[in-house]
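Task: sequence in, structure out. Protein: trans-L-3-hydroxyproline dehydratase.
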Amino acid sequence: CGPVTAFVPWDGRRSGNPVRFHSVPAFAAATDWAVDVPGHGKVVVDIGYGGTFYAFLSAEQLGLDVCSSKTRDLVDAASAVTEAVKKQFKPHHPESEDLAFLYGTILTDGKDAFSEEPTTNICVFADEQVDRSPTGSGVTARIALQYHKGLIQLNQTRTFRSSTTGSLFTGKAVKAIRCGDHNAVVVEVSGEAFYTGTATFTVEEEDQLKYGFFFK
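Result:
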């Protein structure tokens, strides 16, 4: 979706936490958009872009609680929303049509207005996968939507909690920009990161494809 800028604390000896990144341009694609979801009836969603497109709505609209309902029920409901939105809404990205697809649905606790208290969500994406975190691109898109709706201002930091693991990210809009015809923002997302492994890559001179290849 484009380059992001990452920031890692360094004390001269090793890296630390929190780490953070500045997003690609993020924007609201649609707000308060009504969609018919089989098995659930008509619901109202927002669609935001934060590196990929997501549909957002409160779990309450689907008769669920994002903090206490079974994950399987949340996944099933979110997947139904994703499929319904895909059939009824076509995203557009001003810079690349390769990005113009709905990646998933994020169910929230509905607490979109600015608050010092965390707001909880669950991201169901791709083939009914569930993110263990509040989701970097999801937090980015959610901040963009909240900024678009006037619910937060630049540099107001919000905390986002994953309903599955309880892990926390913070997010804030740090710069207002344009992305095609959209009023957009650059969002800073911050969280904890830990080493999970290292890898060494070796290139041998005899490898005829060591520099890669192109298809014509």
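The first helix runs from residue 71 to 88.
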